[in-house]
Specification:
The protein has 402 residues and is mainly α. The protein is built from 18 helices and two strands. The N terminus and C terminus are likely disordered.
């Protein structure tokens, strides 16, 4: 989802990609044992810790453990509510064809939340009353936001609409496998090179995803390959969003609130015009007027939990780093799938568990590869060492023991 792709300011983007901590460790290892005087000077001139803030609440005065626990609690609670309400809305009889209208409603709420957040930031930095001051000027060029808005619309719209054709656990499993289009796209477009752990992670995700989808197609009577195509398109857009956001935020030092506000604002305009031209806006609006609580009411809580969830994910990245944040969000998705099976009646098979565990293994390998860089040359060297030990030690030891 969007929460996983938002990055914060430029420094947060660096930590998400795992380069910031690596540079710090390299610098530390270059001066392994400095003199005592230098150690005192460096500790005195050490920069203060990064500010950890969720909307107008400052968590910087808490210790690392408390920040982590608060962020984890927010991520789990809010995204479990988000998933529950999203699936609940699609259980309303006759709502499945209106997934794009739900996206329009969600974007509209996000615009309001983004406007409030930007004014809160201006109030915090400038003082005065909240509504008497203007938000900070836009940092990123409008043409970049036009691209981001289109990608955001593709991610959210296709993801919401896919629930009309897939069950919720299958959709979540697909979202867990965003590494696959990211890895393929970066190899083809940017010419990047990856190690064996990255390819092993992508392979595990592909196997688990195929197994999970096969089980879903056998158990779900209304399974439709169109849902798989929709969620796959959402993953492609989500993978592209990360690259565009990273470059824009790093170059223009834009806050995450600005990116969220303009991305969803322009996305709302895109979708509103498209739905007006196709006539789907009027049919969706008429259906929602008949079921206002189940659509606009649940849609508000659904959007609010998703928007606040983004803030907690960002706080978790700032306080604990991207690898740990990825582990927490993966665990959250597993809990969400379990709740989905418990709260909503749907067919179940043990194949769901095994395929889900294979996907989790792929996610773990991906996170592990960020901390432990392993090239194919390193792997070949280790295999040679291992085979050499096997070839010379067991037979001699066996003869002595006999």
């Amino acid at each position: 989802m969007v929460g996983d792709s938002q990055a914060g300011n430029g420094h947060d983007v660096i930590s998400i990609n795992g380069t910031g901590n690596g540079q710090q460790q390299t610098a530390a290892s270059a001066f392994a044992s400095p003199p005592t005087s230098q150690r005192k000077t460096s500790s005195a001139s050490k920069s203060p810790p990064a500010e950890v803030r969720i909307l107008c609440f400052d968590l910087s005065h808490y210790n690392r453990t408390t920040q982590f626990l608060l962020s984890c609690a927010g991520v789990f609670i809010l995204y479990i509510i988000y998933g529950y309400l999203q699936e609940l809305i699609f259980t309303v009889e006759g709502f499945k064809p209106y997934g794009w209208f739900l996206t329009l409603v969600q974007f509209g709420y996000y615009i309001g939340f983004g406007l409030v957040e930007r004014r809160l930031e201006s109030y915090r930095t400038q003082g005065g009353t909240i509504w008497s001051i203007e938000p900070a000027p836009r940092c990123i060029p409008l043409r970049t936001y036009l691209v981001l808005a289109a990608l955001t619309l593709g991610t959210m719209g296709l993801s919401n609409s896919s629930l009309g054709y897939l069950n919720y656990p299958t959709q979540v499993i697909f979202k867990c496998c965003k590494l696959i289009p990211v890895l393929v796209g970066s190899i083809i477009i940017q010419g990047k090179r990856y190690g064996p752990l990255d390819f092993a992670a992508a392979t595990a995700m592909c196997v688990g995803l195929a197994w999970f989808t096969l089980a879903d197609s056998q158990l779900t009577p209304n399974f439709n390959p169109l849902g798989v195509a929709m969620i796959s398109g959402a993953l492609l857009c989500d993978a592209a969003i990360g690259n565009v956001q990273e470059k824009a935020m790093r170059e223009h030092k834009a806050p995450s609130s600005e990116v969220v506000f303009y991305s969803y604002g322009l996305g709302f305009v895109y979708l509103f015009v498209i739905m007006l031209l196709t006539g789907n806006f009027f049919s969706g609006f008429a259906f929602c007027l008949v079921h206002p609580l189940e659509t606009f009411g649940y849609g508000f809580l659904f959007s609010l939990s998703g928007y606040l969830g983004i803030q907690f994910v960002l706080a978790l990245v700032r306080s604990s780093g991207a690898p740990l944040a990825a582990t927490v969000t993966t665990a959250r998705k597993a809990v969400t799938i379990a709740f989905s099976f418990l709260l909503f009646s749907k067919p179940f098979t043990v194949q769901y568990i095994w395929s889900g565990l294979i996907v989790v293994l792929g996610i773990y390998l991906n996170v592990y590869s960020k901390k432990n860089k392993l090239t194919f040359t390193d792997l070949q060297h280790r295999l040679k060492q291992f085979s050499a030990r096997l070839s010379r030690s067991p037979s001699r030891k066996f003869l002595v023991e006999v």
